[in-house]
Amino acid sequence: KQKLATSWLGRSFYFFEEIPSTNSYCKTIKMEEGLHGAAFLTDYQTGGRGQHKRKWETSKKQNLTFSLVFCPQRKDGFILLTLACALAVLEAINDLEGLQAKLKWPNDVLVDSKKLCGILTETQFTGNQLEKIIIGIGLNVNQSKFPASLDDYATSIALEKGSPLDRETLLANIFLKLEKRFHQWENYNPRLPRSINKHMIGFGKWTRLSVNGEMLDGKHKFLGIDGTGKLLTLDKDLELNTYTYEQVRVFL
Ligand code: BTX
Q1: Could you tell me if the ipTM is greater than 0.85?
Q2: Fewest Cβ atoms closer than 10 Å to its Cβ: which of 67, 148, 179, 189?
């Protein structure tokens, strides 16, 4: 088994056999010394949440379901941080032989167009002071069957690889990649958005977008994200456009 080689991330570690949602649990804890980078992992989540009140469903003892809490120096760029975490998960997956994962704007990791991992980032403020960022990660590792509603849409590492794998070793590698990408994010390192764009589905392609719920008729070339995590496009008139995460849906 691979040992945890991080210097701080995941060093505080909390395990729950069963819990409604690790993200919801993290909302209730008070940030203290030593909790920056703490991990909260469960083997069974009964009320897992996705974005916009969607559900995250995961089977017992087969996947990786956890949240990390951060108290960063940096108080902006949370979309970029979410993508940095998705990138770290992708890198750990692509270290496994025979797998080629891709990022899908804004927060998914896919293999063969099927969802392998979802990320839910939540921020908590006291007044206008950022108290913590909670990053919830659900990664399908050894699950071999999905509910009918997700069948065409979800996959797991084991299904893609054809064999199950050790979750602890994978988690240790994810934490290591996460620590490196977190430092890059916190230090505004330009390599981070470049690495994200390199793995982003549809990068450099003409694609359809909707902005503020309205479909744009002209095609836009999808240029990934800029250094702040905003989405960049080039339109037919060669205008460069930047959009925020909330404004845009990308249809690939
Ligand atoms: P999302 O809103 O992008 O994705 C949710 C959608 O994904 C669901 O509506 C469903 O269609 C599909 N889905 C549900 N479960 C799975 C699954 N196991 N595999 C693939 N697709 C699925 C993504 O939100 C963010 C998910 C974060 C989950 C983590 S788990 C730890 C933490 N705690 C918590 O409550 N949420 C986060």
Answers
A1: yes
A2: 148
